Amino acid sequence: MKISTSFLFDRATERMSTIQNKLATTQAQMAVSKQILSPSDAPEQAAAIQRLKGEVERQNSHARTLDVAMRRYTSEETALSTSSDLLIRIKELGLQAANDTLGADDRKTISIEMKALRSQLLSLGNTRDDSGNYLFSGTRVNTPAFAEDANGKVVYQGDQTQTRIPAGVERTVQFTRAGTDVYSRVVRDNGQSVGFFDALDHMITALDASKTSGIQQGVADLTQMHNNLTLSQAQNGSDQTVAQSQLDVLDETALRLKSTLSDIEDLDYASAVTRMNKEMMALEAAMGSFAKISSLSLFDYIQN
């Protein structure tokens, strides 16, 4: 068999080039901590990685939405709890004022405190979340839920639209609330429907005029108002529970997906270091062999 010098050189060069390419690939993988440097290296594996990354991002997106909702619920919870405490205090004052032993001056004194409590309730109705959005304006989050007109009458400026966000498979939770659902109207025994703040104003007017019947009606209104507010608190608590449960599920799912992604995408450093050392030794051996071959003539190579 005839072996030319150029053939020997080509074989040795090809071998060194192959080893150098493998070594360079291993070093590049170690530099970025990834198994795949280019999708063309392993198309199926690269496709799986992209699918997993897309799913992880989808899970993270849901989690971010629920995180925003949880912060909103926390703000709502504080506003509702404080409103409940204020209504309880107003009812205590109303029961006290309904006693016929109190004179007109005593009732006016109670009226002063009740007006201050009413102002606090109005302020709570315009509570904002940590993004500056009004909690109880429905979808009109940039508009205060309640405002006083020129006559001091409180009017609702939000809308009745309720938006919901996904919180699991075929389950949603309420994201926006209408102020009139929280600070809701009362329906009296005669069928008359009266707004939340109107009912408070009627009671304050009765106190100023020392009208026992009006004060007693106000106490009855307050019972209904507090019951309605308690329902809003229960709904808020339920939504928090559902949202937190879904957040836990999303966290677990994301962790599992990231673990699977890591198995496919991330580099095994121990294995990569071992492989790199072997490739470096193989390259050194190939270079040594090439040096010896290049110093021989074809005649000397055949003789040896």
The low-confidence parts are none
Number of helices: 8
Give the strand content.
5-15%
Write down the overall geometry: rod-shaped
The number of distinct β-strands equals 6
CATH homologous superfamily assignment of the largest domain: f41 fragment of flagellin, N-terminal domain
CATH topology of the largest domain: f41 fragment of flagellin, N-terminal domain
The Cα radius of gyration reads 38 Å
The CATH architecture term of the largest domain is Up-down Bundle
Distance between the termini: 15 Å
Q: For the record, what CATH class of the largest domain applies? A: Mainly Alpha
Instruction: Determine the oligomeric state from the structure.
Output: single chain
Largest sheet entry: 2 strands, antiparallel
Number of domains: 2
Structural class: mainly alpha
User: What's the pLDDT, averaged over the residues?
Assistant: 81
Q: Strand order, main sheet: write it out.
A: 1-2
The SSE order reads HHHEEEEHEEHHHH
